[in-house]
User: What shape does this take?
Amino acid sequence: MIHDADFQRVLHAFGLLWRGYRKVRKGAKRRLAALMQAQGVASVDDLLERCRHDAKLSEDVRRALAVSISRFFRDQKLWHVLERQVLPGIVGWSGKTVRIWSAGCARGEEVYSLKILWHEWAAAGAPLPKLELWATDFHCGLLEEARRGVYQRSSLKEVDAERQAAWFHGQTQGFFAVSDQLKEGILWRCHDMSIERPPSEGFHLVFLRNNLLTYYAPAVQRKAFAAVVDSLVEGGFLVLGRRERPPGGMWPLIPCAADSHLFRKVPFRSEFS
Assistant: This one.
């Protein structure tokens, strides 16, 4: 097993935060150790040296360090606010197309949760604009799993029986698959928000939960976060994780009264304006 001090060195080399891994480091260390063994790498020193010259190995290390824990409708309070206040408001003023981005979507539970809400609205007869839904992650393997849409029962523990019956069908060995209807129209993209510009712009809602602001170093956070905020339309909403806050500095964002981890983009006003 890799010692914590060596693991911290790897995280630092890849622009990641030790603090963010405090609850998930055992799994990440196991994956990293397995990769090192498979590659015949004897020590962390050797690993970091090889990564300087081997882009494929470097990418494999990043994937080993990726954390993909999620569930459908994770954080019930947030989803109630989105369903009853935020999304109806966006539909009311967005125009012909609602543009949403799930940044760092991992296996897609968040994406399909949103599609369930959207289809339930449509089934209720609500006149809806077109939905343009982007789902991105740097880990292309996780995106392939998201496209397949097959999940363990534990991922559905916050999905009530009515929704399970409507949107999932059981498979062997306790797995569940999302309906084909939910899979339609999602723009899946392999995209690294820590170094790349957002995949599009003019978003009305961006999910940025439990990834950038939890696992990445401050310098990486600020640059990528600024790009995410820029991708929002004025009046658009940004969703962060329960333990996350915007990085230090001035941002054109205000917390929403209904949920302190939901922010709305406002016109920027400096202290000198």
Notes: The chain has two domains: 4-65, 76-265. The CA atoms of residues 197 and 227 lie 6 Å apart. The radius of gyration is 20 Å. The longest strand covers residues 232-240.
